[in-house]
Amino acid sequence: MFRALARGQSLAAQLPSGKTSRNKTIEVGMPKPLTFDSAMMKRADAEEIWREALRPMYEIERSKSEFTAKIETWDLGGAMLLTKHGARDEVQFRRTRRRIATSGVDQYLIHCLLGGSLSSESAEGRQRVALNSIAVRDMNVENVGFAQDAPMLTLSVPRAALDRLMPEGSRLHGATFATGDPVGALVASHFVSLAGVLTDMSVEQSKVAANATLGLLSACLLPHALSPETRHGDPRLAPMLRARALSFIDQRLLDPDLDVDAICAALQLSRTALYELFGDVGGVARLLRGKRLDEAMRRLCDPRRTRERVGEVAFAVGFSSESTFNRAFRERFGCTPSEARSDSSAPAAPPPVDSPEALVARYEAAVRNLRG
Predict the structure, then answer these.
(1) 285 and 237 in one domain?
(2) Residue 252: pLDDT band by 50, 70, 90 thresholds?
(3) What's the pTM?
C-alpha cells in the first residue's frame, strides 16, 4: 500500500528551532519516499487506490490482466518530485482536455525509460521514447501515453521553474533524444543516480539536488526547446510577443470585452500577425475561447460554486449566450455543463490518518502543490 515512513532525525531533533545545545543547526532528515506496492494490498483494492493516486494527472485505461504496479515518490524540498514507477502489461495514460482544466497540475513531466516500451500520441503525431533516455510531456497538452511493461523514472517539474531558464516562448512538449544520444544518456544516468541517493539526503541537500537537476535539464533541453518562430524568422520578437499576448489574455480573461481586436490594439499588431503567433493552436480566438471554457469547467466542478447556475457561469467567463456556451462546452469536453457538474462530487470527510486513502491524498497534495 502507500506508506509514508517517519522522517529521519538527528540525536538532538527534539530541541526547538532546529538547534543543538551548542547552537549548531541540525539538518532535518529527508522524508522517506511515499511508496505503493500492489503486492502488499488486497487485490480488489490495489488497482482502485493506484488509479486514485494518478487521478490528478491522467484518466487510466489498462489491459484486463492481473494488476501489478509499484510507485515510489521522493519530494525534493517542494521544488520537484521524482517518481519511480511501473505497471504490468499495457497501460494508457490519457491527459484529456477536461483533466487539464480541472486538475490544477501545471507541470512538465520528464520521463526516463528504464525498460519495456513507452510512446505518446498528441496532435503532433506519435512519438516513441528511447530506452535509457528521456522525453518531456507538457501537462497542458492533450496526449495519450502508451506504456508496455515500462518501468521508468518521472521527474515532475513546475512549469514556471523550467520556463524561466528557457528562451521566452519555447515549447518543450515532445522534446526527446534519439537512441544512443550521449546527452540523453547523461540526463537519464543523472535521474538514476538521483533516485539512488535521495533517501539518504537531508531536506536542504535535496533542494541543492533539485537546483542542480533543473540546471542540467535546461542546458540539455535548450537545443530541443526552440519554438518554430525562433527557428524560422526573428529569433527575438515572435516568442516575446506571444508571451505578452498570453499574459494580456490571462489578466483579462473574464472581461467580456476581451476579443481579437482588443488584443491586437494592446499589442499593436494586425489581425494577421496575431493569428500567425498562434497558428499552431488555430489562432488566438480559438485559444481565448478554450481558456474561457477551461475556466468554466473549473467553476462547474468547484463544490464551493454549486449554487451558480450554468448561465451565470457562462456569462462570468465571457460568453454572451448560454446556448453558444453549451455548444462550445460540449465540443471541447464531450459533455454538457450540467453533466460535468453532476460528475463532480463534494469533498468527502477526511479519511483516517493511517489509511491508504489518506496516503493517496498526501500524494495528490504533493503533486498539486509543486510551484516554480
Answers:
(1) yes
(2) very high
(3) 0.77
